[in-house]
Amino acid sequence: MQTLLFAFAHPDDESFACGGTLARIHAEEKGRAILYCATRGEAGSPGSPPLCTKDELGDYRERELRRAATLLGIDEVFLRDFGDGQLSKIPLEQLTADLARLLDQVNPDAVITFPPHGISGHPDHRVIQAAVTKAVEASARAASIRLYRVVLPESANPVEGVHYTPVDEITHRVDVSPYRRVMMEALKAHQTQHASIAQVFPGVLKSQWEHLHRTEFFQSVHSWKSIPRGSLL
C-alpha cells in the first residue's frame, strides 16, 4: 500500500484543496494518507460572531483540523507551529529541514502540495510549496518520490485573485463525485472559516453538496508535458 504525504500551510487547506481525493484514498483503500500542516491558523478569522477569542484561535483551529481529518479518513496529522502568516519570515532552510525529517520518517511514495503561486497567492502557500520541493529534491529517495501540485484548470469559472493552470499542463485528474457529501462535512468542520467557505463553495454551509466540484486536478512536478508512469491513486 502506497503512502501519500499532503503538505500544506494552514488548517482547512486540505479540505479546500483536495478533500475529495483524501476521502477517496480512505474509502477505496488506495493508500495511507498523511497530512503535514505548517501552522495552526492563528492569524485567521475566529468567525462572525466569533467562536473563540483570538488567543484561543490556534487551539480551536487545531480541533477543527483534526475533526476534518477524521471525516476525510486521514491516517495521521503532523501539525507544526511555524506561525500563521509568518512562513516567509523564517529561514526557508528551517522549514525544509523539518519536512526532510518527516520524509525520512514516513517514507512517502508521493508528496502533494501547492503550485508555486499557491492558488490563492497566499505567501504561506508559496513558501510551503518551495520548502516541500526543496526537501523532496534533496532526499536520498528523490528519484522514487512522485511530487504533485494540486491545481485549478483554466477552464474553471474564473474568480478574482485565484491562479489557474493551463489545461495542457494538468497530468492527473481524480474523480471525486462519489465523495462530495464527505467533502462538504470536512469543509463544515472548519467552522471559524465559514465566510471563506461560503465564498469559495456556495451552498455548502446549507448542506448543498450537489454543487461541489466532481474532479480534482494535479500536475506532476517532474514533467507536465508527458504523464509520468504510475498514478496519483
UniProtKB/TrEMBL annotation:
Q: Which organism is it from?
A: Salinithrix halophila
Q: What PANTHER family would the database entry show? A: N-ACETYLGLUCOSAMINYL-PHOSPHATIDYLINOSITOL DE-N-ACETYLASE, N-ACETYLGLUCOSAMINYL-PHOSPHATIDYLINOSITOL DE-N-ACETYLASE-RELATED
Q: Which GO terms describe its molecular function?
A: hydrolase activity
Q: Which UniProt keywords apply?
A: Hydrolase
Q: Per the record's keyword annotation, is Nucleotide-binding included, yes or no?
A: no
Record protein name field: PIG-L deacetylase family protein
Gene3D superfamilies the UniProt entry points to: LmbE-like
Q: What EC number(s) are associated with this protein in UniProt?
A: 3.5.1.-
